[in-house]
Amino acid sequence: LLPLAQAVKKLTGDQAKFFGIKNRGTLKVGAHADMLLFDPKSVGRGEGMRLFDLPAGGSRLSTTANGLHGVWVNGTKIADGSGLRKEAGRPGKLLREFNH
Description:
Helix content is 15%, strand content 32%. It is of the alpha+beta class. The longest helix has 8 residues, at 4-11. The protein starts with a helix and ends in a 16-residue tail after the last strand. The model has no long low-confidence stretch (mean pLDDT 89).
């Protein structure tokens, strides 16, 4: 329904601007380097599964991801096509406040 570049902007830059999250949602000098590398021809949801990894053995539904090749947080590659890279650590932080 939308050109790919416009869809990506709506999911990244527009959301960061709406919620007042500075230096996020765009790739420019001085901004945090958060990126997701995907193949537009094959990106999508994979097989669904129930995971029992919540406190007290609670369950949740999850799916695998197809067509994803890498995730970077603050310029550090934390995941690739095989999953999370444990050696990458946790370069990000939980955002609890936004600048509305």
